[in-house]
């Protein structure tokens, strides 16, 4: 089979080489299925266990299929057990890709989540090959984790929308309050002008009242002086 650029080159999950899906190959597979029961009776049950493991892996991690140049290609996850060196290499690849793609160490980061999801899928693949039941249990954990994250994402989006609505309402309320403040300022200026005008009127009234009082006192004084003078003249005339 010719070497091909596989679409899984950027994933941490280990895949087999892609295979070309043709009618001839499908007939060979169907022929192999017809002959397998006869061979299975004579041979060991290892082939059945491997086939069952492949089916479980294909259920957990479905094969990749794509069309290129009018031909259909399929690529399945590898069924080869992982060695200790491959596990160490997986960790190194994870760290290297986190740095290359500049994933954030804290907070929400789609890149970091994608890489850790790929790493977890590869761990599920490795565990499923050794123990299918354990792999299925990890699949439940993965699905539950995804549902939890999706619930948090929905809650996050809902909180953002709620915050935006509150911000818009606050902005609108701020505009109303600013208009009210401006109106109150204008009313305050008008009242200050009225106070100044009333003070001026009061001062003018006080001055007029003082002038009137002084004029009356002067008139009263003059009248008293006139009466005294008249009284003195009358006394003088009587004495004569």
Automatic annotation (TrEMBL):
Keywords: Coiled coil, Dynein, Motor protein. InterPro entries: Axonemal_dynein_light_chain (IPR019347). Residues 22-38 have a biased composition (Basic and acidic residues). Residues 167-215 form a coiled coil. Belongs to the inner dynein arm light chain family. It comes from the Eukaryota. This is 33 kDa inner dynein arm light chain, axonemal. GO terms for cellular component: cytoplasm; dynein complex. Residues 1-53 are annotated as: Disordered. Pfam families: Ax_dynein_light.
């Amino acid at each position: 089979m010719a070497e091909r650029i596989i679409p899984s080159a950027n994933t941490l999950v280990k895949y087999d080489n892609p295979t070309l899906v043709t009618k001839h190959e499908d007939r060979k597979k169907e022929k192999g299925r017809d002959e397998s029961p006869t061979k299975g009776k004579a041979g060991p049950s290892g082939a059945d266990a491997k086939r069952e493991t492949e089916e479980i892996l294909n259920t957990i991690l479905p094969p990749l299929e794509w069309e290129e140049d009018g031909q259909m290609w399929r690529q399945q996850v590898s069924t080869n057990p992982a060695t200790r060196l491959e596990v160490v290499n997986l960790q190194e690849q994870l760290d290297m890709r986190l740095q290359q793609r500049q994933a954030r160490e804290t907070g929400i980061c789609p890149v970091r989540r994608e890489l850790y999801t790929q790493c977890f899928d590869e761990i599920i693949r490795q565990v499923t090959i050794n123990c299918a039941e354990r792999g299925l249990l990890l699949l439940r954990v993965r699905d539950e984790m995804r549902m939890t994250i999706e619930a948090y994402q929905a809650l996050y989006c809902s909180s953002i929308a709620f915050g935006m609505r509150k911000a818009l309402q606050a902005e609108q309320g701020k505009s109303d309050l600013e208009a009210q403040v401006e109106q109150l300022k204008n009313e305050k200026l008008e009242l200050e002008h009225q106070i100044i005008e009333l003070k001026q009127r009061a001062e003018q009234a006080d001055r007029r009242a003082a002038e009137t009082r002084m004029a009356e006192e002067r008139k009263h004084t003059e009248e008293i002086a006139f009466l005294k003078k008249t009284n003195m003249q009358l006394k003088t005339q009587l004495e004569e």
